[in-house]
User: Which sequence fits this backbone?
């Protein structure tokens, strides 16, 4: 050999503990979601006609309502299982940011937007006024993951029917929801 010495270092599997790995994954999902929200939430959907604006306004109102419902589910789980607070706090904060991003686009009163906003509180309050939370933590996390996954799938389908900026926002929030579902289910392993 030509004077080279190869030393094989032992694998260090215990160098990173599981909780820190979970925090890293949460951080990665958080940063990605923040980038999506920063890039997409400030634009307007003025590229379409009046019809697409009303479709956009209805889709934004529905997405905001859905995010608020998911936020209520997080709050209910946290109320029943306070030990999960450290794990759920970053995900809940992102869901709140998603709701704010969708609500930002429906804040200006329009003839089409006003009726949907007055109808949405009654619709949102009645079916999910008090979400049921499973008694054990693992089932509670699984129910949150299922809600995140279902909403992500719903948003992925809805983005095909809305114009540019809102479609990008829905896509980004759907991706964040899929990431949340992963973190909620894979963290137990």
Assistant:
């Amino acid at each position: 050999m030509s004077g080279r010495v190869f030393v094989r270092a032992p694998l260090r599997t215990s160098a990173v503990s599981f909780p820190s790995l979970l925090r890293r994954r949460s951080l990665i999902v958080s940063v990605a979601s923040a980038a999506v929200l920063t890039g997409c939430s400030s634009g307007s959907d003025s590229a379409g006609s009046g019809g697409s604006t009303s479709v956009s306004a209805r889709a934004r109102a529905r997405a905001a309502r859905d995010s608020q419902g998911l936020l209520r589910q997080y709050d209910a789980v946290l109320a029943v299982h306070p030990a999960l607070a450290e794990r759920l706090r970053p995900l809940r904060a992102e869901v709140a940011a998603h709701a704010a991003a969708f609500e930002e686009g429906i804040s200006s009163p329009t003839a089409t937007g006003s009726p949907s906003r007055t109808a949405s509180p009654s619709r949102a309050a009645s079916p999910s006024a008090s979400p049921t939370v499973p008694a054990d933590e693992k089932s509670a996390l699984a129910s949150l993951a299922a809600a995140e996954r279902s909403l992500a799938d719903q948003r992925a389908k809805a983005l095909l029917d809305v114009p540019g900026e809102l479609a990008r926002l829905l896509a980004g929030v759907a991706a964040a929801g899929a990431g949340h579902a992963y973190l909620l289910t894979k963290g137990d392993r």
Q: What stands out?
A: Residues 50-80 form the longest helix (31 residues). The radius of gyration is 20 Å.
